[in-house]
Amino acid sequence: MKITDIITKELKNLHKSNTFKLETPLQGPQGGVVRVQDSDVVMLASNNYLGLSDHPVVKEAAIEGIRKYGYGVASVRFICGTQDIHLELEKKISDFVGCEDTILFSSCFAANEGFFPSLTNEKLGFDSYKDVLYSDRLNHASIIDGQRLCKSDTTVKRIYNHADTDHLEQLLEEDKNKDYRFKIIATDGVFSMEGDLAPLPKLVELAREFNAMLFVDDSHALGVCGETGHGTPEEMGVFGKIDVLTGTLGKAIGGAAGGYISANKDLIEYLRQKSRPYTFSNSLPPSIVFGAMAAFDLLTKDRSIVDTLHKNTAYFRKEIKNLGFTIIEGTHPIVAIILGEASIATEMSKELLHKGVYIKGLWFPVVPRGEARLRAQISAALSRNDLDRALEAFEQTGKKIGVI
Ligand SMILES: *Cc1c(COP(=O)(O)O)cnc(C)c1O
Known about the structure:
Elements: H1 3-16, E1 33-36, E2 39-43, H2 56-69, H3 77-81, H4 84-97, E3 101-105, H5 108-120, E4 131-136, H6 141-148, E5 155-160, H7 165-174, E6 183-188, E7 190-191, E8 196-197, H8 200-209, E9 213-217, H9 232-235, E10 244-248, E11 259-263, H10 265-274, H11 276-279, H12 286-301, H13 304-322, E12 326-327, E13 334-340, H14 342-354, E14 357-358, E15 360-362, E16 372-377, H15 384-401
Bound molecules: pyridoxal-5'-phosphate (PLP).
Pyridoxal-5'-phosphate binds next to α5.
């Protein structure tokens, strides 16, 4: 059988099983309201939490970056791809997340792929050794893939049940007398399917007790969680106590691209030597670097942006419940609206688009069977009027389909 025939058959299967990912083109910039199929719809599906994707200050900074530093650097960092602005952005991120130093990547996916194997696949003076990774069952694909790159003969992988610190403690306890070289606990700061936060204080405690390194991917939390948007460590009272923080500049911080790892100075220095997606991949373009710096400056100077996000989130969470919908409780702008059957979620999202609301459904196998849902993502870019328009559409659609 030809490769292309097999691929064609697989595509048919994806359509049949309702897991084919459809792409809807936006006819303009990302924002609170976007242009889709020649009409204006309220956007409830983006990671543009702070509304900086199309912010005039961020856009102007990106253009300024091109004017002053060019379009691209055409080099990896250690050959001739480091500009002074890369170091400036790294310093800014370190200060913002409360770590000594930071290394930039082209994305957080690359950062996570670059982290784990650069530690576990190196002998570092040990003739024989084994490392162990403890990973939350619902961790992001990039953490899973980063760990897949670790050699299986020297890396033991242990999955603990989602946010279940008792289970994690049990695994750590079982491994206590095994002579592991490195122990790393890895978790998302915020889990994107439910919008729930990792139990960081307990994870910090367990990491200390069992002499493990704690790795937190704060992609959905940077600029979002905590009173001033410094992430899950701020929200949970453990700021400055996380060993390794990774995150993206492709969500709240302007939404263009870029990722980072922040940690202790020597660890970052080491990653600059050994992390393959860093040493063998082009450095971030000046437009992104300038845009991201402007985004950090904006949210540091103007507290009202994060405040608006938090107020919008609290308002939407309260009102959607008042309408009779079942949501997963929490504080994050990711609001999972549970509907049950996949067919209801698809019908709701189609109907909502007709009524001017852009939202995506999630169903099995992405979430457990029978827990199909719509995932709303609230943004500071949404006005009260946008939110009310969305809520009204939810009310009408929910009644029509019979879920409220
Ligand atoms: C979005 C996300 C990523 C990927 O970030 P990119 O910069 O887009 O590659 C990685 N980890 C988590 C937890 C995410 O939510």
